[in-house]
Amino acid sequence: MIQPPITSLTNTRVKAAVRLRDRRERELTGLTIVDGARENLRALDAGARVETAFLADDLLHTPDAHEVANRLRHRSSTLAVSAAVLAKVAYGERSDGVVAIVEAPRLELADLVLPDDPLIVVVEGVEKPGNLGAVLRTADGAGADAVIAADPRTDPFNPNAIRASLGTIFALPVVSATSAETIDWLVDRGIRPVAAIVDATTDYIAADLRGPLAVVLGSEAEGLSAAWHDPRVTAVSIAMHGIADSLNVSIAAAILLYEAARQRSLPTDRGH
């Protein structure tokens, strides 16, 4: 028997989903909100466990939306809801007709399984989830193997970070750790940290970005903490020719990661 769509904004499962807008609730339950068709497809493709899914049939307009709806529709945990209810549980303004509550992966540094020649992104102290999500999207595009959120000020699986990453957060291992733990872990495994620091004397173009590497970035407002002014860390700069003294962290990530990818694609006998 087909159940009619839920229309009550005070439905128990609707209220539980709304509470996940709060970081403390996400940390307590281990759940998060995935809003959007493409984001949910990538979560499903990565094997994310769906605790509850909300579908509003009237809002399913795109091929991705129909595909994810078809994959979720026959699960007992999937609820048909009205457009008003979906708007209540959704995190973004754009609605694709599907919102899922999923279990956020919880990985530690010790859980990371890396190739022999890894490319890692470390982002320290980024406060805005949208910026973190954009870095994750860039890391995925550049072929990075993992992302470490060092001393994060937002949880990596903030719904806005998931949305800004276009769901690529589910395709990469994402770990949170302190900066000190991260430096020690990288060095112990022979992974060279290369940090973007404004006043560094080595331009990134002149730096050797081959071999096991971690590209390290800080927040736009404060840059990297003193922990990264460490002799074990290579400092590089990105030249600024205008009046601004720094780039958006996702832009800086793109510059360094794609330069690393370029260098790493060259035949080893040619160097740069």
Model description:
The protein has helices spanning 12-19, 23-29, 37-45, 63-72, 83-89, 129-141, 159-164, 179-188, 249-265, and strands at residues 31-35, 50-55, 78-80, 98-103, 119-124, 146-150, 174-177, 192-196, 213-217, 234-236. The strands form two sheets. The chain has a six-stranded parallel sheet with strand order 7-6-5-9-8-10, with helices on both faces. Strands 1-4-2-3 form a four-stranded mixed sheet. It is of the alpha/beta class.
Tell me, briefly, the overall form: elongated
Total strands:
10
Q: Separation of termini?
A: 65 Å
Strand content: 15-25%
Question: How many strands, what sense, and barrel or not for the largest sheet?
Answer: 6 strands, parallel
Radius of gyration: 20 Å
Question: Can you give me a brief rundown of this structure?
Answer:
With 272 residues, this protein is of the alpha/beta class.
Detail the topology: elements first, then pairings.
Blueprint: H1 12-19, H2 23-29, E1 31-35, H3 37-45, E2 50-55, H4 63-72, E3 78-80, H5 83-89, E4 98-103, E5 119-124, H6 129-141, E6 146-150, H7 159-164, E7 174-177, H8 179-188, E8 192-196, E9 213-217, E10 234-236, H9 249-265
Parallel strand pairs: 2-3, 5-6, 5-9, 6-7, 8-9, 8-10
Antiparallel strand pairs: 1-4, 2-4
Helix pairs in contact: 3-4, 6-9
